[in-house]
Amino acid sequence: MDFKPIKLSAKWQTVISSIIGERSQPSNTQTQYLKLEDGDQLKLSISYAQTTIQNITVVMFHGLSGDENSSYMVRIAKKLLNLGYHVVRVNHRGANKHLLPLARGIYHAGKSDDIYAVLKHLSLGDEHAQLIPIGFSISGNMLLKALAEHSDNDLSIKHAIAIAPPMDLLASMAKLSQKNNAIFNRHFAKRLYQLFKHRAITHNHYQTFQEKVATLPKNYGVYEIDEAFTAKEAGFVTAHEYYTHSSAKNYLSKIAYRTTILCDHDDPFVDNRFAIGLSHTNIDIQWTHKGGHMGYLSRCKGWRPFEFWLDKKLISLIQNHKE
User: Any idea where the AB hydrolase-1 domain is (predicted)?
Assistant: First the structure.
């Protein structure tokens, strides 16, 4: 299934696709809270299809600064439900300020244990279930790392899919930090800043937060946030150590599950050039051009200005299990 982009730059593909789409919640949705080993909880929104297909459940993990209500999460979930697939939309630890009371810890690019905990929980919940986990952006990196670390096939995974995962965090951060990406860098940095601020207020360590804020330069970006906050909270000394340890590229050869990775050559801030031509037994890396970062607005027939190619691609992968 070839991607035929509309006449937009990859950056505009990224921007426009992130601000349009479904917002209303899928029907027949139940909330479940998964308690982790350290006491933190994850909120799972589980939507049940009226007529099921092969008892397949699609498990969706959102991107950085997103949550279950991100437009692509809702949009794709509703389409899958209509096709007969159960859908679980997973919120990472403290994904938004309303979920902060449930978790003292944070999620980050290397927090693969949380991905595994969700998939293990769902595998045990129904011994006949077949899971298709989809990790978007940073969650794609987390998912790939989790699959590699738990390659003993104790998970009921039929097919795993990673969309635009920053598998080389050092290279991707260098790309995001370029001047021509300042708008993206600043956007993510501000979102992360606000989340750390609300977390500090929620868990009564605002003074420590202020001390860290004092170390930030005036025009801070994601790297500076990671250096001051994320790396330390994740148990690393520096952001560089955090990126090096957490990059999925170091773990790909250990993945035993059938996995598809979708990358775009023109992604404005994810650099996966190391993976061009890369070959592993269980991994199919597919490349597109001019799709941006999870943009994929494609040409279509009729009156509509575009269609969401990513949705069609995911549905095709899920239905065919071999494209």
Answer: 57-275
